[in-house]
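ok here's the first one, seq then struct tokens
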Amino acid sequence: MFLELDSLIESSTQYGTSPGPVLPPLAFIAATPASAQGTRQLEAHDHGVGTLNIAIDGSTLAMEFHAPGADIVGFEYAATSEADIAAINAAIEVLGTPLDLFAMPEAAGCRLIDAAVELETEDDHDDHDDHDDHDHADEASNASHTEFHGEYMLTCDMPSALTQIMFPYFDVFPNAQEVEVQLVTETGAAAFEVERDAPTLEIGS
């Protein structure tokens, strides 16, 4: 879904609003959520810190979310017990409902169109070409560094009412402390840090 969103944002902003217009924010989003699989390396991450990329183009809103496994399920070791595997699968289900985690004004009329969530591991990137489909939780069986990755497509009836985003995410996942947000719209790009003690992102109108 987000073939080039990371690089688009990096070229558009350095923790501030870009001075001029950027390319249409959804121009780099592919038609299917799985299309970018394997193109992003699993990078070192800070526990407690997730990232949320948002692109808004007209009534369409796309988001890409990454969070360390420790933030979401409390561990990043190989999941072998039934309890750990159940925790991973439950987290994937919760992360599949982004509007419960990143709440938008009711007046904006935003609703989820598509969602894809997976648990990424170091092994997924080391030998991705050798994999076939298997259970999400099994992907963590031989890894020591894991990250949850979600990609979402939404539509909003009144995008002009999308002036803020609340983060119930912090209530759902107690280990999460901060989300680094990068926002791309038709007029520019900006970056923000949303913290547990101030869980609201003001994005203007």
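and now the second one, same deal
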Amino acid sequence: MNLPRFDNIPGAVAIDLDGTLLNSESQLSERNRAAIESCVECGIPVIVATSRPARSVRRLIGSELADICSLVMLNGAVVIGNPPLSGYYREILPDKIARGTIDYVLGINPQATIAIELEGYEFGVTGLSTGHCCGSRIPQRPIWCFH
């Protein structure tokens, strides 16, 4: 394999998760894990970018890598900087837009199931009258149940 040779150490390495860092089976190869660890050992910040929420990022790359890489998740809605980078950022969807979107969807389909991410660690979902959520029976009108 002919890889480019760099004269300077990069200021950072940013890499997408699905189809780039992970293989077609959503697994992290030992070669990719070693490359990330090598970058971090050399003082090069590694930034993992994905549309996925935090709970699946940690599951897919492992807590060890999630703790040493900076993470851009939920298409940039949640950002966590780990050394040598730092900071925490979250872009909250304004209540008016969230409520308007929910009302619009339910206006088209009153039986629609709606899920909302809560900073990538939890999500809220509406349930139907015949379903179960968190071990308890859901009443006739959909309610929010958080996981």
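notes on #2: Residues 128-147 have pLDDT under 50 and may be disordered. The longest strand covers residues 122-126.
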